[in-house]
Amino acid sequence: MSDSQLTFSSFAVAGGAGGLGSLITKELLAQGAKVVVLSRSASTAVPEGAIVRAVDYTDKDSLVNALSGVEVVVSALNAGGFPSQPALADAAKAAGAKLFVPS
Prior knowledge:
Elements: E1 10-14, H1 19-30, E2 34-39, E3 51-54, H2 60-66, E4 72-75, H3 85-95, E5 99-101
Helix pairs in contact: 2-3
């Protein structure tokens, strides 16, 4: 990322503890953003400074609750998680997120 300030300040990264997702999470944190990592398990190890929220990608209420207060939702889900993206996008909209970035 450049030295300019971020347009948004709060992000959720689905798959934010995985390979690409952890890199996205770390860079957002380095830029001063609040980052929520969505994971199927609350015990998932996430980069320091991130908040982990356990979600059920088949439960819209679970997703909406996890995305509360988030401006941008970034999907770093791998191919196995692609079928979850429509539900994630719908939940992002319902939670009031301003932007959804698919994998």
